[in-house]
Design goal:
Blueprint (H helix, E strand, L loop, with lengths): L3 H8 L3 H4 L8 H15 L15 H11 L6 H23 L4 H13 L8 H4 L1 H19 L8 E2 L2 H4 L6 E6 L20 H5 L12 H16 L1 H29 L6 E5 L8 H4 L1 H14 L3 E7 L14 E5 L17 H9 L3 E7 L4 E4 L4 E7 L9 H4 L3 E3 L2 E3 L9 E5 L6 H10 L3 E2 L1 E5 L3 E8 L7
Parallel strand pairs: 2-3, 3-4, 4-5, 5-6, 6-11, 6-12, 7-14, 8-11
Antiparallel strand pairs: 1-2, 7-8, 9-10, 13-14
Helix pairs in contact: 5-11, 6-12, 8-12, 11-12, 12-14
Length: 461
Amino acid sequence: MRNFCEFIKENHSYLPELVDTRAAAKERQTNRIIDFIGAVVSPTHDSPAEVDQSLNESRVHNLVNLLDKPHITQKEGEHLERAHNIQSNANRIQAAVNGNPHKHMQRGWKAYQSHIKIGEDPRVTQKSHLQSAMKDMHDYRKKHFGYKSKFKPLKTNTKTGKNSKEFEQTTGLNLMAAGMHGVEGHNSCPNSTQSCREHCLVHATGQNVMLPNINSKIAHHHYAIEHPEEHARIVHAHLLNHIDGVARKNESEKKAGTGITHSASYRPNMFTDYNFRQGHKKIFEHAHDYAAKKGVQFHIYDYTKAPNRQKQPHHPNDTTALSSTGPDIKQNGRVHKESNDHHVADALHAGHVVAAIIHGNPTHLYDHKHDRYYPVVNGDKDDRIGERHKEAGHKVKNGVGIDPKTKRPTGVVSKLDGKGINGDLIRAMKKDGFSHYSTMRNHPEHGPTEVVEINRKHAKS
């Protein structure tokens, strides 16, 4: 079998005519690129082949973006080699977990959490097991993907980094969305829609689009799937490390006399939609208890498309926002079959937070189903979704927003404007009905008001 990097260099001569990100949108160009990438991911490298279905388009486009250069450095060759190794490793995992990755992960999570005791620090009481797990993850990444450096499973990004302006330090678990990890039959976003997967932020914004970052997330996810018990142990330890870091920061602020107190928060699903509220329940409980003893206010934030997730028992400091998949009626007047407007309406009616990509500057969302208005607040200024009710002027009881005037549960909409997403993708999102658009409506208290309307199929004629 020929060397993978040699194959890339040999075939790179005709890439300039293939790779034009503007022309790539054309079907003919796209098909030629896919044929080429098919050869790249082919086990034999001998001829163009059809791309495996589990290789999603984001990985194809990221390969293309990296290849659109006159020369390939040794480092870039390593990234391409890893991209090639992803599918063969994913196939191996599928066999290793007996064809049921999710059950395998659940068993691993349960096995680790059976050893957690409130009041104990597992980094101390189970130190040898943690050291063994850390070494195992390092060896795994080196063996299957060629990584040599140490890896931290919890990280921040541009959005969560904004929380620091409000003296909240946030970290999160970075895994790959839906089926982008390549392991057949395993969907890390089980309630995702086709439009959701096509427009996912994991391949649409910032450094997420870069092949090295895609590879790193996938390698991480592969370990999480194949070795869930060890991975849960490592994640738990790093979450406690994060809380310790905030506690030290507060101690420094106290000594300096600044009067500033920092809080800590955690995003278990940066790009996935696992039910960690249940799956990592004891980890969450232990983290809350540990933070309280350290004098650190601790929150867990999550976004989901699972309609019942918000109803599950949780710590009062934790907030889960239901993500909208777009209005039930598209801007062109056609029915949007992938819309979850009915779930959004029920979540808002029950007093929960809803996150939605909205174009325009509406102050309210109007739900035709329940004939109710809900306030819209800026969800882009930071990632502290637990603060959205307060920003709307609501009181909060057991995580549910309460209208101070009517005393009834009322939800709030966290508006995301999609800035930072590729312009072509934004246009596609509008066309597919994934994002909302604002209209003018006569509000009973405020008169003509810019609003977002949902459940328009319930509109009274």
